[in-house]
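A note from the maintainers: we've had questions about how concatenated examples are separated. There is no special marker in the raw files; a new sequence line simply starts the next protein. For clarity in this README we add a label.
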Amino acid sequence: MSGRTDSVAGPAEAEEAERTEPAVRHEEDELHEGDDRHEEDDAEFYDEARRARWLATGTGALLALAGVAAALLRLTGPAPALVPVAYAVGAAVCAAAAVLGARGRTRRALWLLIAGTMIMALGDQFD
């Protein structure tokens, strides 16, 4: 053992570092050139996420309004009491889906939209 620490480099090691330094810089340049592509991918991802939130929110609000309107129409008619209740519950589930969609929970919102629509369809079967 020479007793020399790693921080002290000899002339041969210094020459080796000079030869490998341009290769390292070249690799760094390639990494920075790829950043533009990653930024475009990130922007595309955020656009898709924004569209999914708007779609879940809009669909939930539309189905909730349709459910409330159907519940009010069935409430004034000769339908059994269970029918407007089913429409109202389905509308409430769809409204919850709209809230979740606005918060970015689009998968859960999708399942709630499906459940709310099924509840409304089930209520329609009682008529």
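[label: protein 2]
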Amino acid sequence: MGRPISIINFERSFWASILLGIGGMVFHWTTVVDGLKKDPLLSGSVDIAVIAVGLALAFGFALSFLLWYLISRRANNVAKWIYVVVMGFGVVSTLTSINDPLSPSGFALAISLVSTALTAVSIVFLFRPDARAWFAKETVDPRAFD
């Protein structure tokens, strides 16, 4: 069975969100580093904090890539639900941080919001009828994938 159109659209919105997230982080990186330098608790260990933030971001992207693989290539239903829960929290977190003065602003905020919207769209694609069949591995009318 080929991958249904909803899974293909999930991938498209997933990768667009990831690319925007990486672009937003590159755009916002100097602000993150400046914020770490101003933190009095980190005096003398800013370099370690920057490395820790970088490692946390790398871990987050690696987890996202793993979930993408399990969802779109292996039709793993558990991975789908982990993705939905984790990214759902991310969507809520982004929306609640809009008024936070420490959050990105301007263009970085716009990138973050578009990336979050694409993540929400990717979640919606996972619950379309053809995607449900993909995860259930049940016999489906082939016209569902047109």
